[in-house]
């Protein structure tokens, strides 16, 4: 099984995790030395979201100036059995659902889009969850500060595919970021990836199959056609399916 076998008629129409209106559109933003390309802010926050951001985000947020030597245990108020990271959680629906179902797991959600952080903050506060922390900036500097083998699992779901060839260098799945992920996973740790864009699925498989630090766990087509166990889904995924795009769900094991 290889990257060329992903052919269920998926569209390569440029789609991003966040729906965009003219009022939300901004120029592409890139922090020097980091990995984030895209919009940082969208519509004005709803009044209740603004309240949660002011009142609750300070206790949830991981500071961008995280001191060297910080461990994941330092970021949580109580001991956790293990830790997981989601890179680019969008509006946080899927993340918050999993956080609520796994109270003994410590979750870190990273999302550079301000409005997505606001939605997640409100949902976390309303459900009284204490096993999640949020990072609202380019995730790469955070990854570089965290200790080796810190996470049992790292997730990247529906990242911006940057469909134009000249923009492929902006895709999060690229060798330097795979090295970061490999460092943060212990042997047996999992990296999970989901996309509805066939070209990005093939791109990701090419990169991961060529990396001796990872093994694709799929043994049959249904292993990547069916959602992950316990998958909650997202509003973006539902929209993609309505429009005829077929998601793929890929799991790679750290060797």
UniProtKB/TrEMBL annotation:
Binding site for substrate: 164, 196, 234-237
EC id: 2.1.1.33
UniProt pathway: tRNA modification; N(7)-methylguanine-tRNA biosynthesis
CDD domains per UniProt: AdoMet_MTases
GO molecular function: tRNA (guanine(46)-N7)-methyltransferase activity
Basic and acidic residues bias (residue ranges): 16-29
Family annotation (InterPro entries): SAM-dependent_MTases_sf, tRNA_(Gua-N-7)_MeTrfase_Trmb, tRNA_methyltr_TrmB_bact
Pfam families for this protein: Methyltransf_4
S-adenosyl-L-methionine is among the record's keywords: yes
Highest rank taxon of the organism: Bacteria
Assigned keywords, A-Z: Methyltransferase, S-adenosyl-L-methionine, Transferase, tRNA processing
EC top class named in words: transferase
SUPFAM superfamilies per record: S-adenosyl-L-methionine-dependent methyltransferases
Residues the entry annotates as binding S-adenosyl-L-methionine: 86, 111, 138, 160
Catalytic activity, as annotated: guanosine(46) in tRNA + S-adenosyl-L-methionine = N(7)-methylguanosine(46) in tRNA + S-adenosyl-L-homocysteine
Family per record: Belongs to the class I-like SAM-binding methyltransferase superfamily. TrmB family.
General function of this protein: Catalyzes the formation of N(7)-methylguanine at position 46 (m7G46) in tRNA.
HAMAP family: tRNA_methyltr_TrmB
Name of the protein in question: tRNA (guanine-N(7)-)-methyltransferase
Source organism of this protein record: Ancylobacter crimeensis
């Amino acid at each position: 099984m290889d990257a060329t076998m992903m052919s269920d008629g998926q569209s390569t129409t440029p789609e991003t995790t966040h729906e965009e209106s003219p009022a939300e559109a901004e120029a592409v933003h890139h922090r020097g030395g980091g990995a984030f390309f895209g919009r940082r802010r969208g519509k004005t926050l709803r009044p209740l979201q603004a309240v949660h951001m002011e009142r609750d985000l300070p206790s949830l947020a991981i500071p961008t100036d995280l001191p060297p030597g910080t461990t994941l245990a330092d970021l949580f108020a109580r001991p956790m059995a293990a830790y997981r990271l989601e890179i680019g959680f969008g509006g946080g629906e899927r993340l918050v659902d999993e956080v609520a179902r796994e109270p003994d797991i410590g979750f870190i959600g990273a999302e550079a889009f301000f409005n997505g952080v606001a939605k997640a903050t409100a949902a976390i506060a309303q459900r009284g969850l204490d096993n999640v922390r949020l990072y609202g900036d380019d995730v790469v500097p955070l990854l570089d500060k965290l200790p080796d083998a810190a996470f049992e699992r790292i997730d990247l779901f529906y990242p911006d595919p940057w469909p134009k060839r000249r923009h492929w260098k902006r895709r999060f799945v690229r060798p330097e970021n795979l090295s970061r992920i490999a460092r943060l996973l212990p042997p047996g740790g999992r990296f999970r990836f989901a996309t509805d864009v066939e070209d990005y699925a093939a791109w990701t498989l090419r990169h991961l199959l060529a990396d001796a630090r990872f093994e694709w766990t799929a043994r049959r087509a249904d292993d990547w056609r069916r959602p992950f166990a316990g998958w909650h889904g997202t509003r973006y995924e539902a929209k993609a399916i309505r429009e005829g795009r077929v998601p793929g769900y890929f799991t790679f094991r750290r060797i």
